[in-house]
Amino acid sequence: METLSIALSLWKIGLVSSEELIAWVDAQIQMSDNPDEVLVQLSLNGPETCVKRPIYEFPIRPIELTFTEEFGLRVSMLDSHSEPEVNNFIKWAAVKCMGDDLDDPIVIFCYQLEDVWTLEAQVAFVRNELPPLLSRSTSIANSFYARVPGLKLKGERTI
Predict the structure, then answer these.
(1) d(CA 6, CA 10)
(2) Taking every pair of C-alpha atoms in the chain, what is the biggest distance, in angstroms?
(3) Alpha-carbon distance 126 to 86, whole Å?
C-alpha cells in the first residue's frame, strides 16, 4: 500500500488531480481479482472524503514528505515561464524551508530566495539559480514517480 500512499501524497501537494487519482485507482482495481477495500472506497468516494475519515475507517494516508522530497516533486512540475506557477512556488519554498538543514543546497537556495525583497527579483532568482538543482530534484521526483506507474500528473504525461 506504499504505492497508494505515494499517489495520495502527489494528490495532496497538487501534482495529481482527484479525477486522475481516481482513474488510476480504477485501473488498479481492474487489474486485481480481489481489490483491496481501500481502493474501492477511494474510487467511490474520492480522496477528499477518504483522507478525512478516521484512520480505522481509511488506514492509508499520504506519506510525510521531507522538505527536500517535496521540493524535488514541486520543481519537477514547475513551469518556470509561468508567472503564477513561479509565484506559488516562491510562496511555498520561502516558508516551508524554515528550520531545515542549512547544509542542504536546496534549503540554502530557499533561504536565499526568501532574502530577496521583491517578487520580481525572486522570480528572476528562481529562473537563474534553480537550474543547478534540477538534476537532484529530477532524481528525487523520478524515484517517486517510478513507484506509481500509470498515474497521470496534472498537465503531464502518464508516468
Answers:
(1) 6
(2) 57
(3) 8
